[in-house]
Amino acid sequence: MNHIIQTSDLTMSFRGCDALRGVTLNVDEGTVFALLGENGAGKTTLIRILTGFQLPTSGTCRIMDLNPAKDALEIRRRTGYVSDAPALYDWMGVGEIGWFAATLYDNQFLPRYKESIRRYEIPEDRKIRHLSKGQRAKVALSLALAHDPDLLILDEPTSGLDPMVRRDFLESMIDRAASGRTVFLSSHQISEVERVADVIAILHDGKVRVCEPLDKLKDSVTEVAISLEDPLVALPTLPKPAEVLDEQSYGRQRSMVVRHYDSEMHDLLASRVGVTGVSERALSLEEIFIAFTGRSQSPKPVENAEIPMAIEGGLA
Fold it and tell me: Between helices 109-119 and 94-102, what is the axis angle to 10°?
C-alpha cells in the first residue's frame, strides 16, 4: 500500500516553544487516519507543515510524493481541508460560494457541490451568515469534497457541533475511505474518532507516543487490577516488551495500565507473595489516550475500594 503522507523526524520550534519534536508518520492511501492530542499538542502545526503553510525547522515531509516546501499549490489542489472554524465569506449565499469556488476547479465541481448541499438540506439562497455552526461545517465539507480530492484533512472539524451532526459528519468519512481516498483527521474528540478511524496516532508534547491500527492498539493495552494483602507489598518488574504506562494505588488495590501484557506476566504477578488476586480488563481508546499522555487523575486512596473502571475527550 502506498503512503500518501510521509514525515521523518519533523521538528518545529518557535520562540520559547518546541511545537514538534521529531515527528515521524506514514499514512496509507484509502484509510481514515486519526491524529489525537490535547489542545496545544502540535496537531495544527503539523497540518500547516503538511499543506505548505509552514516550513519545518528540520526534518522531511512528502504529501502524495510532493514536497510541501516546493509543491504547496499542487498539494492544495489535490487536497480538501476543513477546520473547526471554516473561513467562509459571510455575505455570500450558499449557492454563490459554490459558484465562486468552482472557478478554481474543473466543470464537475459545481454539480458535485450542489448535490452535496441538497443532501445536507441547506437552501442555496441562504446567506452564510445565517447558517448554524453545523450548517457551516456541512458547507465547508461540501466545498472541500467537490473537487474529489485524493486527501481530505480535517482539523477538529466537529468542535461545537451537536451529536447528530457530528455522527453524520464522521460516518461520511468512512464512505470516503471506502472509495479509495484518504482522510487525515485531527481531533481530541476521542470517543467519536474510535467509531471511524483505521489507524491512530497519539501526539503528546510534540512527540508521537504511538501509531498503530486501532484494533492492534486496543489489543496491546490492558488494565491490570491487583489485590494485595498489604499496601506495602512490592510487585515484580514486568519483563520486556511490557511497558507500564500508568500505575495507581488505592489502599490494598494496585492498578496498572500495561502495553504488551501477556499470560506469563499474569502468572508472574499472581505468584508473588502478598498478592491475593490479579484481573485484567480491556480499555477504551479514551482510556488508552489518557494513559499515553499521562493525564490521569488519582482519586484519594480508599481502603478496599474497587478500582475505577472508567477514566476520563474550508475551503481547499
Answer: 160
Q: In this structure, what are the phi and psi dihedrals at residue 218, rounded to the nearest 5 degrees?
A: -65, -35
Q: How do residues 194-232 score in pLDDT, each as one tens digit?
A: 888 999 999 999 999 999 999 999 999 999 999 999 988
> C-alpha angle 296/204/81, rounded to 5°?
120
**Is there a single domain that holds both residue 64 and residue 200?**
yes
Domain that holds residue 258: 221-293
Q: Which residue has the cell 450542489?
A: 114
Q: What are the start-end ranges of the E strands in the chain?
A: 3-14, 17-28, 32-36, 58-63, 79-83, 151-155, 182-187, 199-204, 207-213, 221-228, 243-250, 253-259, 275-282
Regarding whether 189 and 62 lie in a shared domain, the answer is: yes
Task: Encode pLDDT of 11-45 as tens digits.
Answer: 999 988 899 999 999 999 999 999 998 888 889 89
